[in-house]
Predict the 3D structure of the following.
Amino acid sequence: MPISALTAELSVGPAGVALGSAPKAPRAGTRRQVGPLLLVAHYLDRLGLVKLVDGLVPVRGRAQLTHGEVIAALVASRLCSPSLLYDIAGWASSAAVAELLGVPGMLLNDDRLGRALEALAPAAGQARGQLLLTAVREFAVAGASRLHLDLTAVRFAGAFEDSAVVTGAGPPTGRSPGR
């Protein structure tokens, strides 16, 4: 998406949804970090993340942001500058989140992020599947019949005195942890 198209979207959210208070242009001399956010915003838009999430979990009652807008900002944060939930509003205020995603950073407090994640949780599997299909279609992924989505996470906790990895002997590849 060209920059001119991105700037044309500043008065509406990425999915064309008018925001409660459209982001204003920053004052002269204001600096915002862009970095990878420009690319992330482009690909989130191509994937239709905001529209997808809003279709699966519409907002109930009055809200200044939709769940899709909040989730898009959260995804952008994880990809650009992973932070704790309570730090995302600060990151969004210093980054060009309002300008590129149409989401004012001050509205991304940890309570709002938590509500969006809670609302998305029951539909997360369906959202992942639809995003995968959209990515295959949108980016012409060759050999898509061989794709496997595995979100397994393995964590270990406790005392493992007999473990070669814990004692520093290293993992089976011969490299020590942290290198």
Notes: Residues 124-138 form the longest helix (15 residues). Residues 1-21, 174-179 have pLDDT under 50 and may be disordered. Residues 3-138 form one domain.
